[in-house]
């Protein structure tokens, strides 16, 4: 088990600026492509810049793209987000397609996912002022001084009659009425007359 999480900032997962409730706002503000003009490890970065950078800039006008050549250094992608976070990615010996995939990944992130140790998996901006629920929350005040077992509390509740019980009761009433008017034969004769 590593202790690298001890040095990360801790916080809560949050949707930036309530993103997704209205229109979507891309959280990537600027991306910097650092590379060497001669070094072999920067070949993929140079290929991406020559072939795909202009198309990427046209498709994403809200993202500022900087190209920074540096001598004898490894290629690097630096992404800066709206919340002020920076993501640094080493692209040594990466191909053109790998770099475009990394840029797409950086474009869809919000900047705080990889550099934040989560304290909880959920968070609310408006916590309840009522506090947590307890079993004693909605109890009657008379029940506080009650001694148990108690006959007053153990009486059956006034529960409405179920549909099955109501049908059984109606059947018994009809049976009694039929017995009073001449039995089952009297009920059948009445039905035939109607």
From TrEMBL:
Any one GO MF annotation of this record: structural constituent of ribosome
Gene3D superfamilies linked: Glutaredoxin
Domain spans labelled Ribosomal protein/NADH dehydrogenase: 37-110
GO CC, one annotated term: mitochondrial large ribosomal subunit
SUPFAM superfamilies cross-referenced by the UniProt entry: Thioredoxin-like
A Pfam short name: L51_S25_CI-B8
Domain of life from the UniProt record: Eukaryota
Keywords: Mitochondrion, Ribonucleoprotein, Ribosomal protein
Subcellular location: Mitochondrion
The keyword RNA-binding appears for this protein: no
A Gene Ontology BP annotation from the UniProt entry: mitochondrial translation
PANTHER family for the chain: 39S RIBOSOMAL PROTEIN L43, LARGE RIBOSOMAL SUBUNIT PROTEIN ML43
Family to which the UniProt record says this protein belongs: Belongs to the mitochondrion-specific ribosomal protein mL43 family.
Protein name stated in the entry: Large ribosomal subunit protein mL43
Organism: Drosophila albomicans (Fruit fly)
């Amino acid at each position: 088990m590593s202790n690298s999480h001890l040095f990360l900032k801790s916080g809560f997962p949050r949707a930036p600026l309530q993103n997704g409730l209205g229109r979507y706002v891309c959280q990537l503000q600027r991306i910097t492509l650092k590379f060497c003009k001669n070094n072999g490890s920067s070949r993929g970065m140079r290929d991406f810049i020559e072939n795909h950078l202009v198309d990427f800039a046209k498709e994403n006008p809200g993202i500022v793209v900087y190209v920074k050549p540096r001598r004898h250094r490894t290629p690097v992608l630096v992404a800066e987000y709206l919340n002020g976070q920076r993501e640094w990615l080493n692209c040594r010996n990466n191909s053109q397609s790998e770099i475009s995939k990394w840029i797409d990944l950086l474009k869809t992130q919000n900047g705080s996912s990889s550099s934040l140790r989560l304290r909880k998996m959920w968070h609310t901006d408006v916590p309840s002022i009522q506090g947590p629920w307890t079993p004693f929350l909605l109890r009657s005040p008379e029940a506080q001084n009650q001694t148990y077992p108690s006959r007053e509390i153990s009486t059956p509740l006034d529960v409405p009659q179920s549909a099955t019980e109501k049908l059984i009761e109606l059947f018994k009433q009809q049976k009694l009425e039929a017995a009073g008017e001449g039995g089952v034969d009297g009920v059948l004769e009445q039905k035939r007359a109607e």
